[in-house]
Amino acid sequence: MHEGHRERMRRRLFEHGSSLTDHELFEILLFEHIPRKDTNPVAHALLDSFGDPAGVFAASPRLLCSVAGVGPRTAEYIYLIGQILGRLRDDERRLVRLSSFGEVRSYVRRRFADVAVERLELYFTDEDGMLLCTKSFTDIRRDEVALDGRLFGKLLGDVKPTGVIVAHNHPSGSCEPSAEDDRAFTRLHALCRMYGVCLNDSIVYADGELYSYYREGRAARLGIR
Predict the structure, then answer these.
(1) pLDDT tens track of the chain, all 225 residues?
(2) Same domain for 175 and 108
(3) Which domain holds residue 185?
(4) Cα 200 off chain centre by
(5) Helix (H, G, I), strand (E, B) or coil at 20
(6) How would DSSP label each residue in 107-134?
(7) Do the domain assignments include residue 175?
(8) Are 124 and 161 in contact (CB under 8 A)?
């Protein structure tokens, strides 16, 4: 019963995490640190003691240990998460928007500024141009071959974007696209159309300079609008 319940809770978290209540989320959070005890009462006690999740994560380890069922290691774990969340709230970068070329240029330059080897990145965005996820590959030539319909379809199924931006670098120092870049762009555009996703741009980066397939008119010359 005990292990079956935990497995069901983990499955609910994986499939429908947003539907879980606060105490259910804390119940799952405590599974690894309280392996042989029902964590539901401890989760309720934490929320009763500190009011809400923000209060729990703001509490000191000493205060957390005052809750029945919470030992030093569990208190340290909860406090650690609170510290990480606090730093995320203070992070000026926050969410990344890629709805304009200026925003894309800034993000690509930041991502590739110190990269000395060839790298390919896919930026998945929502309908508002907000970045959902970045997928990075360090061997462009190999991954151009590997990025077939099945792999790309799996990525789209996992992330569920409405738009994709592809970016890669030329360590040689010139951002002028090659014939192979054109073929890769055409293949990716076809895959995007197949899965109903918009290919918003393809960017080539070299020494701080960017080449955009759409801004430079290269996409149109390849017959892509």
Answers:
(1) 466 888 888 999 999 888 999 999 999 999 988 887 889 999 999 998 888 898 899 899 998 998 989 999 999 999 999 999 888 776 545 678 999 999 999 999 999 988 888 888 899 999 999 998 888 887 655 444 346 677 788 888 888 899 999 999 998 888 999 998 999 899 999 999 989 999 999 999 999 999 999 999 999 999 887
(2) yes
(3) 101-221
(4) 18
(5) coil
(6) HHHHHHTT--S--EEEEEE-TT-BEEEE
(7) yes
(8) yes
* All residues at 6 or more sequence positions from 141 whose CB lies less than 8 Å from its CB, including other chains: 118, 180
Tokens of residue 52, six digits: 């809400």
Instruction: Say whether both 120 and 216 belong to one domain.
Output: yes
Q: What is the tally of structural domains in the chain? A: 2
Say if CB 124 and CB 132 are below 8 A apart: yes
pTM of the full structure:
0.66
Give the number of other CB atoms < 10 A from CB of residue 120: 20
The first and second tokens of residue 219, run together, are: 């996409």
CB atoms within 10 A of CB 34: 18
Q: How long a stretch of residues is the chain?
A: 225
What are the structure tokens assigned to 8, written together?
A: 């069901």
**Residue 169 forms part of a structural domain:** yes
Q: How far is CA 191 from CA 35, 125, 211, 224, in A?
A: 45, 16, 22, 13
Between CA 133 and CA 174 the distance in angstroms is: 27
What is the distance in angstroms between the CA of the first residue and the CA of the last residue of the chain? 58
Q: Are residues 110 and 50 in the same domain?
A: no
